[in-house]
Amino acid sequence: MPPQPPTTVVLARFDDLLARGLRELIEGDPSLTIVAAEVEYGRIPVVLRAHRPAVAILDVGALAKLAEIRELSSGHPDTRFVLIADDPSMEECAQLIAFGASACLGKSTQSRDVLNAIHLASRGLQVMPRSASDPAGGPLGAGHLLTGREAEVLPLLQQGRSNAQIALALQVGVETVRTHARNIYRKLGVSSRRQLAATSLPERKQESSAPGRPPLRRASMPVSSRRGHGLRHR
Questions:
Q1: Are strands 125-129 and 80-85 parallel, antiparallel or unpaired?
Q2: Given this model, what pLDDT does residue 12 score?
Q3: Tens digits of per-residue pLDDT, 36-90?
Q4: Per-residue confidence band for 23, with pLDDT thresholds at 50, 70 and 90
Q5: At the topology level of CATH, where does 148-202 sit?
């Protein structure tokens, strides 16, 4: 059997220590190859179109809004996105996955687990940590994340339910639903309910995938909170 070609990876710009750690880690794995590194965030769509990598590794903190992940994922269906944040909570990781990421990791994640995440994401798996920081979170910025109530409203909006139907289902006022809907549109980067209905949810991706793209499944991996074992401390 001929050897499999290496998995292609694009590395966005990170701070110096993290960038060095990621590059050394990936270059040390013969089954991975970096096709572009230190990519400025404004050039990511151009680089993805040029190289069509299997995996792109992005810094969550450098994104203007989390909706960019949804836009990148939709525009580049052959690429899986591994997102790295300072110290993400489980809730934050779940929401990043909902925005279109394939993996969510903290910057203190152990090197072997970063490699595992890259390989799993390239095969169509969604990677969630088994444990993370305080569930209350905060490093990603609460202004970009859906609140608990907004997360309840979102699937009902995508099902095409009216504000009155959603209000009845959740036992809240219609004006409250309107407020939640406006916030959801802003955070997801859409302008109408029709656009929102066209947005793929993770559950839909798990049920069926686009032609040529393997179905998404979910895996879990440990996230280390011990300093000295993460990418920033190589």
A1: unpaired
A2: 96
A3: 999 999 999 999 999 999 999 999 989 887 778 888 988 999 999 999 988 887 7
A4: very high
A5: Arc Repressor Mutant, subunit A (1.10.10)
Question: How many Cα neighbours within 13 Å face the side chain of 156?
Answer: 19
What stretch(es) of the chain map to CATH 3.40.50.2300?
Answer: 7-139+208-223
Give the strand pairing for 55-59 and 7-12. parallel
3-state helix, strand, coil in the chain (%, to 5): 45, 20, 40
Task: Give the pLDDT confidence score for residue 49 in this predicted structure.
Answer: 96
Q: Which helix (H) or strand (E) holds 72?
A: helix 67-75
What would the CATH number be for the domain defined by 7-139+208-223? Answer: 3.40.50.2300
Q: In what order do the strands lie in the sheet with 103-106?
A: 32-39, 7-12, 55-59, 80-85, 103-106, 125-129, 217-221
Give the residue with greater pLDDT, 211 vs 190. Answer: 190
Q: Which amino acid is at 61?
A: G
